């Protein structure tokens, strides 16, 4: 009796993940883009994104309304600035007409601000040999 052995070679791509606070993306970046679990890749600027922990704290306010300040940040505020609509709406049902009159937070309104923040020139290069 003859035994035949078959060797099966499986090619599995090696996927590297990025450690906390290391670069995971940007304009022109060619390295790994997947962060170690449970980290997420956060864009810091046009030239740098890094792996960081996501928010795992409170998502509601005890005493004050939670007001969105940007696409990434909200805060509990005792006051309601005139330039925004706070959550000072009663728990009553709001009809469609009143809802249409409210100026709600729209992340697209801030896209232009983000783009303009990315228009900084590249930092000057330093000749380390000259130092």
From TrEMBL:
PROSITE patterns with a match to the protein in the record: CBM1_2 (PS51164)
UniProt cross-references to Pfam families, sorted A to Z: CBM_1
Source organism superkingdom: Eukaryota
Keywords associated with the record: Signal
InterPro entries registered for this protein in UniProt: CBD (IPR000254), CBD_sf (IPR035971)
Location of region: Disordered: 91-131
One MF annotation (Gene Ontology) recorded for this entry: cellulose binding
Gene Ontology terms: biological process: carbohydrate metabolic process
GO cellular component: extracellular region
Keyword field contains Manganese: no
Residues covered by the CBM1 domain: 16-52
Biased composition (Acidic residues): 91-103, 109-121
Signal peptide stretch: 1-17
Protein name: CBM1 domain-containing protein
Organism from which the protein derives: Rotaria magnacalcarata
């Amino acid at each position: 009796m003859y035994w035949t052995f078959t060797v099966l070679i499986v090619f599995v791509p090696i996927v590297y993940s990025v450690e906390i606070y290391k670069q995971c993306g940007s304009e022109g970046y060619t390295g790994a883009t997947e962060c170690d679990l449970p980290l997420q890749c956060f864009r810091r600027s046009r030239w740098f994104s890094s792996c960081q922990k996501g928010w795992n704290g409170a998502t509601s306010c005890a005493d004050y309304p939670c007001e969105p300040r940007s696409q990434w940040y909200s805060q509990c505020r005792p006051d309601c600035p005139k330039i925004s609509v706070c959550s000072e709406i009663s728990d009553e049902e709001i009809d469609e007409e009143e809802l249409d009159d409210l100026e709600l937070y729209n992340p697209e309104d801030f896209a232009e601000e983000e783009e303009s923040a990315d228009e900084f020139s590249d930092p000057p290069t330093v000749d380390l040999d000259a130092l």
